[in-house]
Write a structure and sequence with these properties.
The chain is built from eleven helices and 13 strands. The chain is an alpha/beta fold. The protein is globular and about 55 Å long. α1 crosses α7. It has a domain of about 200 residues: Rossmann fold (3-Layer(aba) Sandwich), CATH 3.40.50.720. The strands form four sheets. Strands 3-2-1-4-5-6-11 form a seven-stranded parallel sheet, with helices on both faces. It has a two-stranded parallel ribbon with strand order 7-10.
């Protein structure tokens, strides 16, 4: 049994990870800043196994004490908007302070940081740059740093399909940002959580990047048509030029009602697929599941 701290544990990916790791008997601590339903998080394991607690900042003394006693730290905490500060502050500087605390923990066995496919410092995304710098900070300061770069994660309750499906059910016309030819490589949540379990159970050492992408590369246009077919509905995909939508999103994201942010809009400008940088599911003995069939199962059930 290991002591595992999971930042962002109350989110979609976090809940799946907690459920899987709890079955292995690990003790799990879930620090959070925004309000969550603590009772639901505790119910993902047996009595006393999962401990959520609220912290004010990364400098919180109680949080530091917990981090000094943990064997595994998983960081899922991220953001796509800058309402609460710049990406430099909310992503990179948070990770920088977290890594500095973990660096003095002699019990720490692994630091697992969730990034994303295509993250680098060469594109026009300030968020991507902040995440990439966080990866490098981990590699430079913690000897067993595992970077998880997943594709778009789907599964029951995922944010991606939860936002898309109501539009497809209610509207005959479906907005398609850009020309629809940009490709992505969705991945099933159960495969991602299994990969993390294997990384922990096998005590993988060293600095590693795992690109966790599903077996299918598909364009947004073809994926949207797949959703229409699964719903057995005729839908007209309406191209929306990015040059037109960008200024509107730039204004809307300053309000609480924006459907997406400028950073999320960048996903429609560049392929989001595996670059075969380091390791993949294959290195963990996992055959990722067919995400088109998973999507169909979610829609039909």
């Amino acid at each position: 049994m290991k002591s595992i701290v999971i930042f962002g544990g109350a989110g979609f990916v976090g809940r799946h990870l907690i459920r899987r790791l709890a079955k292995k008997g690990h003790k799990i601590i879930v620090p959070y800043q925004k309000s969550i339903q603590e009772a639901k998080i505790r119910l993902l394991g047996v009595t006393g196994q999962i401990t959520p607690f609220r912290f004010s900042s990364i400098d919180d003394l109680r949080l530091k004490s917990v981090l000094q006693k943990s064997q595994i730290c998983i960081n899922l905490k991220t953001t796509y908007d800058q309402k609460n500060g710049s990406f430099e502050d909310t992503i990179f500087k948070f990770n920088q302070k977290l890594i500095n605390i973990l660096n003095s923990n002699t019990l720490l066995e692994q630091y697992i940081f969730f990034s994303g496919l295509g993250v680098n410092n060469e594109n026009n995304s300030s968020r991507s740059n902040a995440v990439f710098k966080s990866e490098k900070e981990a590699f430079n300061n913690i000897k067993n740093s595992i970077i998880i770069r997943p594709g778009v994660i789907i599964g029951g309750g995922d944010v991606f399909l939860q936002r898309l499906l109501p539009i497809f059910k209610l509207s005959f016309f479906i907005p398609l940002f850009g020309n629809g030819k940009i490709r992505f490589q969705p991945v099933f949540i159960d495969d991602v959580s299994l990969a993390v379990e294997r990384i922990i159970e096998e005590s993988i050492e060293g600095n590693n990047i795992y690109e966790l992408a599903g077996p299918i590369i598909i364009s947004y246009k073809d994926f949207y048509n797949h959703i229409s077919n699964c719903l057995n509905k005729t839908r007209v995909l309406t191209p929306v030029p990015l040059s037109f939508i960008k200024p509107l999103i730039g204004i809307a994201e300053k309000t609480p009602f924006s459907p997406l942010t400028s950073e999320q809009l960048l996903l429609f400008e560049k392929d989001n697929i595996s670059e075969n940088i380091d390791k993949s599911f294959k290195n963990l003995g996992i055959n990722p599941q067919d995400t088109l069939q998973i999507t169909r199962n979610i829609i039909e059930n």
